[in-house]
Amino acid sequence: MTRVRVDLNISLDGFATTTDQTPEKPFGEDWGRLTDAYVSTRTFRSRVLGDTSGAGTTGVDDDFASRYFDEIGAEIMGAAMFGLHANADDPDWRGWWGDEPPFRCPVFVLSHTPREPIPMKGGTTFHFIDADAQDALNTAVAAADGGDVRIGGGPTTVRQFLRAGLVDELHVAIAPILLGRGIRLWDDLRGFEEGYRATSVSAPSGTTHLTFSR
Amino acid sequence: MTRVRVDLNISLDGFATTTDQTPEKPFGEDWGRLTDAYVSTRTFRSRVLGDTSGAGTTGVDDDFASRYFDEIGAEIMGAAMFGLHANADDPDWRGWWGDEPPFRCPVFVLSHTPREPIPMKGGTTFHFIDADAQDALNTAVAAADGGDVRIGGGPTTVRQFLRAGLVDELHVAIAPILLGRGIRLWDDLRGFEEGYRATSVSAPSGTTHLTFSR
Ligand SMILES: NC(=O)c1ccc[n+]([C@@H]2O[C@H](COP(=O)([O-])OP(=O)(O)OC[C@H]3O[C@@H](n4cnc5c(N)ncnc54)[C@H](OP(=O)(O)O)[C@@H]3O)[C@@H](O)[C@H]2O)c1
Ligand SMILES: NC(=O)c1ccc[n+]([C@@H]2O[C@H](COP(=O)([O-])OP(=O)(O)OC[C@H]3O[C@@H](n4cnc5c(N)ncnc54)[C@H](OP(=O)(O)O)[C@@H]3O)[C@@H](O)[C@H]2O)c1
């Protein structure tokens, strides 16, 4: 059975985006602190950075990082996460992930101004669709061919799926930092926990991995 | 050395107060869900409820509950936590905790309309003071006689001490629920974590115990 999954890195005060980008540091210091435990893992280093040396942390954080990629048959993401907002004037923008993105499956980018699909190396194809959460999910489930569907982010997109009750598993890696500004994951989700089982695991990095699943 | 400590129960979305009180249920369902893991502990049952049967949970949640009362020589709380706001027209209000409150030390209630001190059974005396965070703390440290000072709550009061850099140890028990409304603990605390060590422990109840200490 296809499960709909979300994995996000958030701060203790619930922010899933950062705000300290500059032209010199396009991701900002905060992004580094928010995702530090994740990008330090062996899984991230090999799967996303292509580092085959075996470097990187193992243990709790790496276990979750590795689950992140398991069994995913299709991904849905928002236009901002793909980079359409930051690169609006570049008609040839192909995402942040280089020629061979780590997804290796169809990726559906939600956008009010869809473009032609972009096939990439390694199994990823970016499709652009203008659809509500349920319709987008139907499309992704069909494309996933029995695999799971991940709602990749950002928070604006993820919240639509959470609010519509479409998510089977929500994993957040909570960094012990207070960002104080950005887009909150948790807004308008009062009572979300009903019908889910919550489990929580702490990693030596200080990260708390909280999972709601049903 | 006196340490200044905070222990609060908060929801995953950062709320430290509840909003569903009714005349029939003066604490509301949300308060029960927010504090469930804490009030179920053996320590809470014996120390706060006076239940000498030995009932209650043991383990991670109880370890933190028991630390809550250790070594505290004085407490500071806000007028709302003491109940002055909800009982503004009762000049004889003596707090929510019965004749023998669990504090067993001097308690300084911050208020813009101070009253006469109220000595209670078991070592607790409620003093009412109109002071900023630093002055209130100086008063409490002197009264604590070498013991620690706890800033008991609510969030409006606690945030003043956090923002002023006066807190040595902040422990939050994070319940895996989303309240969606109330007073947030974390507002305006960007960068609070600097200078603190963060540790996180998960309890089987689903509660995450996060501690910042310096
Ligand atoms: N913390 C994490 O783990 C994590 C993970 C992923 C991303 N991020 C961060 O999240 C940020 C982006 O998040 P975000 O919340 O600002 O935006 P987002 O969710 O990535 O994208 C939102 C945009 O997608 C389009 N869209 C969303 N739903 C749609 C629908 N149903 N139909 C049509 N179009 C739709 C709209 O763009 P248009 O109207 O322009 O078409 C909307 O403005 C990035 O900074 C990224 O770094 C964080
Ligand atoms: N989650 C938890 O673990 C926890 C723990 C404790 C309490 N609580 C909850 O917190 C709620 C109350 O919190 P709250 O944030 O609304 O209020 P609070 O912090 O308890 O009280 C705030 C009030 O205290 C007085 N005050 C605060 N600082 C002062 C200062 N420097 N000088 C003079 N007066 C000062 C002011 O009252 P006046 O202007 O009226 O004098 C102010 O409105 C309650 O519902 C309680 O259940 C939760």
From TrEMBL, chains A, B:
Which GO molecular function annotations are given, in alphabetical order? 5-amino-6-(5-phosphoribosylamino)uracil reductase activity
State the SUPFAM superfamilies in the record.
Answer: Dihydrofolate reductase-like
Q: What biological process terms from GO does the record include?
A: riboflavin biosynthetic process
Give one Pfam family. RibD_C
Enumerate the spans annotated as Bacterial bifunctional deaminase-reductase C-terminal domain: 4-188
* Identification of the protein by name: Bacterial bifunctional deaminase-reductase C-terminal domain-containing protein
Q: Which organism is it from?
A: Gordonia soli NBRC 108243
